[in-house]
């Protein structure tokens, strides 16, 4: 949904009521114990949450050896803000019974770790941190945005610490930023808790890896709740797009072709392309996916868009290899600094 245009063709800001009714998905990382509190006995708590707020809410399945799970809440912004307030209240009250003594704070606050697309983080932080300060002042929470993207994803964590009431207010403000900047949220590679690959070892990514039955590249438009395959939007920018023949819709094997965009920080693009394109050629060859790279950054963040096209399996392998290269380069740089 875009901003409203008035008669003069100027863009008028949305009203509070329009924000309240806009549909979106907001995810958060929770520990296994927190997930237990949120779900409740025989799913009672999560059912009550849905009834009270009108949202769809669910927690990702347990992955052996992984302590994180993802809470997904889809609905109107009004419902989502209310739902996160209730989740924070439930965690606060449920902490002692769940043996979560370490998390119980005497000041009546509890942290909620929201997952935000790296591309949308700038909108929440604002220029020189003005927006994040404004959200904190308006709601009374303390917010900390992590710099690093989560493994094999383009999502980052924003930790929001405060009372249930202030968390509800903060989520409302954060949701408004995400609605205003929804365009940049497309193509987000969602974080999927999984056993991570060891450097030099094979991929141990049960629940989300290559050959797994669940791909981790859904864009959080409520697809978490259905078994239907995710839909992909091919958002190719550039004036020459109109003159190109339409891309094929199926591979030679008859599999449906899917297109996905990911943003790569511009200072990392070189290490992914490699000398004379050697690395990117290798990724194209071993994944079977077509990968095109935008010549110029797509916004002021300076990031460049990589467009991956191929079968679901090819795309997943290409993504995996791209992220493996990114992680290796990050590791190399941090060691070089030491």
TrEMBL record:
Segment Disordered: which positions?
198-264
Q: GO molecular-function annotation terms?
A: RNA binding
Against InterPro entries, the record matches this protein to: KH_dom, KH_dom_type_1, KH_dom_type_1_sf, Rnc1_KH-I_3
Q: List compositional bias (Gly residues) regions by residue number.
A: 199-212
Q: Specify the domain of life of the species encoding this protein.
A: Eukaryota
Annotated keywords:
Repeat, RNA-binding
Q: Which PROSITE patterns match?
A: KH_TYPE_1
Q: Please indicate if the UniProt record lists Metal-binding as a keyword.
A: no
What range(s) does the K Homology domain occupy? 22-92, 108-179, 256-327
The UniProt record lists the keyword Hydrolase: no
The name this protein carries in UniProt is K Homology domain-containing protein
Please give the organism. Answer: Delitschia confertaspora ATCC 74209
| Phylogenetic classification of the source organism | Eukaryota, Fungi, Dikarya, Ascomycota, Pezizomycotina
